[in-house]
Amino acid sequence: MHSRPLRVAIIGAGPAGIYAADALMKSDTATTRGVSIDLFERMPAPFGFIRYGVAPDHPRIKAIITALHKVLDKPHVRLFGNIDYGTDITLEDLQQFYDAVVFSTGAEDDRALDIPGIELDGSFGAAEFVSWYDGHPDKPRQWPLTAEKVAVLGVGNVALDVARILAKTAEELLPTEIPPNVYAGLQANRAVEVHVFGRRGPAQAKFTPMELRELDHSPTIEVVVDPADIDYDAASDAARRASKQVDMVANVLQDWAIRDPGDRPHKLFLHFFESPHEILGEDGKVAALRTERTELDGTGNVRGTGHFTDWDVQAVYRAVGYLSTALPALPFDHASGTIPNEAGRVIGHDSRPVPGVYVTGWIKRGPVGLIGHTKGDANETIACLLSDTAHLPTATHPSEDAVVEFLERLQLPYTTWDGWYLLDAYERSLGEPHGRERIKVVEREEMLAASRRNQPQHVH
Prior knowledge:
By secondary structure, the protein is of the alpha/beta class. It contains 18 helices and 18 strands.
């Protein structure tokens, strides 16, 4: 019999990490032996992708925070924010205090797109832009929004977010939580035409119907679809029959293609069957995007037609997927951007599971799928961890105080779950005089000061 609770560290306090904590707390082990969970988060605030990867005008997705909040409110869970794995704390350090370590560090870099001209001034990764408008403390405070015509490459929800933020006015976004520097940046935005490009057809688009329909809700954005882009092959028809979502997306696009153009000031074009071929430059800056027209081949894939078009744009945003980064002391598969694993058990260089080390979320399966997938993912990983408990390496300093003493000794200015309540109240107080729910704080030092008001201040 174990005389103490199972000690687990989770690295990354976004949805993936919090769902893993939730799965642990709902387990039989939690009832019989007890579990004690500490989440380590690089940012001073929790919630990861929900705070720094979701567009500010998406309050519905932000509502997920309410569910995540309930997990972090539980007494068996602690949060240590502003602690960077690999810099402040190592795997070896963690293994002194925990029986198992779960990595849920997500993905926040941009996947590369290998076409000529991608390095030109005015060519951006969508993830970088999302981090800017979401007030990520480690990103630049300014963003160059000088282009009047902009291309967005990709047909997923991130592409839609980027296109929508570029096409909306700063005033439309002011009621959201955007920080003052983002509002100022968007006020200077000169974009009046945004072109979204997809290599394949409407039935292969990765939008969700709700996100797509939302584009048309803005009083300033005219969504335009070319009737020539509405085309389906046998595989596309089968995809529509097999999936209600695919069919809904196709129907929305068809409706937009046949309606008469309106007179809203900003135009947002959704182009299909246009494969990005090259970004053309002038004096080192983006001057145009060259695409090759494609056609369906019967299988839902496309082939090139040899017909090229040059689009007059001054900026290009690639939204072709997120990419995870390698973590110190762990194996990494650069091709897939994941940590090699079997059902969440990390597989070492010797092709065997690394004892007591697990992964969940995008670092486990790649940056695909919605929040629901993340929950199933966490359940699978935690089931493996719990079935391994008899063979886990035993922590040498398993007391809950030991890790706190360690962080204090290193003089790391960490934040806590109580600290999040303080920061949350502070951000809400900033919004209140303006009739806004909150204004997000960007500066790390300001976040720390708000989160640590009642705690001893450590100075490096």
